[in-house]
Design brief:
seven-stranded mixed beta sheet; 19% strand
Length: 165
């Protein structure tokens, strides 16, 4: 799984409430997507494009374990999320809803806003397309990659159930 797009860079310790405010969680997903990360970068929900890549520092997605935050982020059309580290529940939620995520130490040293990146989930390598500079991270577990190929946890469960019926 390889993703390529321009990156949006965010800092450390970004909570799920900064991804999507509580007041939007009962709105339709297309409304929620119009407010994702707006307090940290008001341009993000207006200018994010399908395939773009979110880059963040340490402990991205901390606080609540609400999967709605990962669903709203995915609804913006981004290709994947790259962070120095994730809150564990957020990381699992990404894969469960079909949003690719990868941990790469020092990623913010490689990426600045607008940098075109290529993310190879299988190898764990993120490359600045313009300069060729790269950083290696932790490749996603094969089970999690299977989950992504299936379209998320529910799709994977359905797929595997069909194998046994």
């Amino acid at each position: 799984m390889i993703f390529e797009g321009n990156c949006w860079v965010f800092g450390d310790n970004i909570p799920t409430d900064a991804l999507v405010k509580s007041r939007y969680v009962f709105e339709p997903m297309e409304i929620m997507a119009k407010h994702v990360l707006e307090d940290l970068d008001p341009e993000f929900p207006l200018k994010v494009r399908p395939g773009d890549i979110v880059v963040a520092g340490r402990h991205f997605g901390q606080s609540s374990g609400r999967a709605i935050a990962t669903k709203a982020l995915r609804a913006t059309g981004i290709g994947c999320v790259v962070a120095e580290s994730f809150a564990r529940t957020f990381y699992r939620n990404c894969f469960e809803v079909g949003l690719p995520a990868i941990e790469v130490g020092g990623i913010k040293a490689l990426a600045t806003a607008g940098t075109p990146l290529r993310v190879d989930l299988a190898s764990g390598v993120v490359t600045d397309v313009a300069t060729g500079r790269a950083r290696g991270g932790s490749p996603a577990d094969p089970f999690l990659v299977d989950m992504l190929y299936a379209g998320g946890l529910i799709a994977l469960a359905r797929q595997r159930k069909e194998l046994f019926t």
